[in-house]
Amino acid sequence: MTCLEGNISRFVIISNRKKKESRACRSVMGNDSFFSIPAPVMFHEYHGRNIILSENNTVAYRKSGYAYGITFSKEPLLPGEIFLLEIEKFEHGWIGNLRCGLTQENPSTNFDLPQYALPGLVEGGQSWILPVSTADINLFDQTYINKLYPTIYESNNHIHTSKGSIPTSVLLPSRHKMPSLCYSDGEDSVHSMSSLFSEESADENYNENGEYMYPADVGSRIGVTYVIRDNLAEMYILLNGHVFGPCATGIPYKSGPIYAVIDLYGTTKQVRIIQTFGIPSLKIACRDKILQQVSHSKVFHLPLPEKLKQFLTYRS
């Protein structure tokens, strides 16, 4: 082989290698179904008139009042897919808080939205929604994730679902969180926090610091999913790593797609979707990791900009 032939041969080998790398890169970027990264879970563009979406439609904020805060998942849920969100802000002065569930009302049809998910959406007969409060959650049995087998099951500290596997820790609230307070705009407000600070149940959940964690507290992670039983669907609610349900049965899942529905009602001011199957934002991933290692009081002593400290303590 001549020197020229050797150089050409090496050039062909390198070119073929570059082509393979390019194909792999395109695959990872989503231009190929193989090794494609799941698209981020988002809220639907159609929502209640008091809702403002931000950060690529992954954050929902209720700008005023306590009503007209209904939101939906952008895409229908697969059986066993967990739609998970975290409460980031609450607002003093209202009674009641987040409602969560499933609906077969298609938000893409822009149907007339009621003020509230309960009873507004439920009255239509195509929605199954639960207030997320201690009293309402405790109406249902707490169950083990493996009771949802084979659609969902847990092993080796991972939850295995129809859409992929996620670390069990993703379902838990980040540690050492403190409330981020918003003040009521005064519209139809009442001076009561009974939905957050009541003796609704003796079966309380505490975080690792021994502090009580109410279902609608800032930092709580709330999810909804469904599994198929005898050609009908059952709805389950996930709250800070615990599974409750079935909270609704006999859902005719074959009659139409099922969307997650969230109502930012009452004290619940802002929520963020937790990306369980896609890639979370670097900002959120870093916050979760820091709050798992550093107590709230020590955040203010970290050598960080003030704006970042406010973000870590849910004040921005």
Compute the gyration radius: what is it?
23 Å
Percentage of residues in DSSP E strands: 25-35%
Principal-axis shape equals globular
Number of strands: 16
> In terms of structural class, how would the helical and strand content be classed?
alpha+beta
N-end to C-end Cα span: 68 Å
Order of SSEs, N→C? HEEEEEHEHEEEEEEEEEEHHH
Q: Roughly what is the average pLDDT, rounded to an integer?
A: 78
Helical segment count: 6
- Low-pLDDT windows of residues: 2-35, 176-181, 183-204
How much helicity do the residues have?
Answer: 10-25%
Largest sheet: 9 strands, mixed
GO molecular function, one term: ubiquitin protein ligase activity
InterPro entries: B30.2/SPRY_sf, Neuralized, NHR_dom, SOCS_box, SOCS_box-like_dom_sf
Domain SOCS box: 279-316
Domain NHR: 40-276
Question: Which tags fit this structure?
Answer:
9-stranded mixed β-sheet; alpha+beta; single chain; 16 strands; 316 residues; 26% strand; 4-stranded antiparallel β-sheet
Structure notes:
With 316 residues, the protein is α+β, with helices and mostly antiparallel strands. Helix content is 19%, strand content 26%. The protein has helices at 3-31, 117-121, 134-137, 282-293, 296-299, 306-312, and strands at 51-54, 59-62, 70-72, 83-91, 99-103, 127-131, 142-143, 153-155, 158-160, 165-167, 181-182, 221-229, 232-239, 242-251, 259-263, 268-273. The strands form three sheets. Strands 1, 2, 4, 7, 11, 12, 13, 14 and 16 form a nine-stranded mixed sheet that branches. The longest helix has 29 residues, at 3-31. The protein is globular. The N and C termini lie far apart (68 Å). Residues 40-276 form the NHR domain. Pfam families: Neuralized (PF07177), SOCS_box (PF07525). Residues 279-316 form the SOCS box domain. InterPro entries: B30.2/SPRY_sf, Neuralized, NHR_dom, SOCS_box, SOCS_box-like_dom_sf. One of its GO terms (molecular function) is ubiquitin protein ligase activity.
